[in-house]
Design goal:
single chain, 196 residues, alpha+beta, five-stranded antiparallel sheet, 5 helices, elongated
């Protein structure tokens, strides 16, 4: 099998790692919590770092008027389907071996990734800005949106947001599918030279 096909198939298979490893992490560090609170975001669920973390985050957020962390979001229904469809499609295209389809798949996947990151940003924005008027603690002009990536001081907490294993494997898979396009192009040029 050509190297380009192997790259395309292997890169597409890495998408399924999102069902095995978490995608993103948000951690809240504060002096009163020697062990930071946090949650891992999977393609289909939110999970606390430790038992009780989600409940403790919800309790703190309640005082400043933030909504509870959702047990379920529509994205948890949509994202797994997108990953499965794109993974299977990428594998099929790998067997077909058309370099233009490799590039098309990569572009579509990149656009879906950008849309996913934007959706995550909108969720964070709503979560940190859409506060209840009945909050026990009100600070005019204060928003509690965690960072998309990196760290941010929010009152006495430091919120840290970063990609996890699933995200890195996803990026690696996408890089491999892009590499498949360039390798296939090189393979085509070499085949033309041999035939001429």
């Amino acid at each position: 099998m050509k190297k380009s096909k192997i790259l395309m198939i292997s890169g597409s298979l890495l998408l399924f790692s999102l069902f095995v490893f978490p995608l993103w992490n948000i951690t809240l560090e504060a002096p009163q919590y020697p062990i930071p609170l946090g949650m891992n975001i999977w393609v289909n669920k939110l999970v606390g770092h430790q038992e009780g973390d989600i409940q403790n985050i919800n309790l703190m957020n309640h005082y400043v008027g933030m909504k509870p962390l959702p047990e379920h979001m529509k994205e948890f229904d949509v994202f797994p389907i997108v990953i499965i469809v794109m993974g299977i499609l990428g594998i099929a295209l790998g067997f077909i071996g058309n370099k233009k389809l490799f590039l098309t798949w990569f572009i579509v996947m990149a656009l879906l990734g950008i849309a996913g990151i934007y959706d995550f940003y909108l969720w964070e924005y709503d979560y940190g800005h859409n506060l209840s008027d009945k909050a026990a603690i009100k600070i005019p002009g204060m928003a509690y949106q965690p960072p998309l990536i990196g760290s941010k001081k929010i009152l006495n907490f430091t919120a840290v947001s970063s990609p996890l294993t699933g995200a890195y494997l996803l990026f690696l898979g996408m890089f491999m599918t892009l590499a498949a396009f360039f390798v296939a192009r090189k393979e085509d040029k070499m085949a033309k030279k041999k035939s001429s």
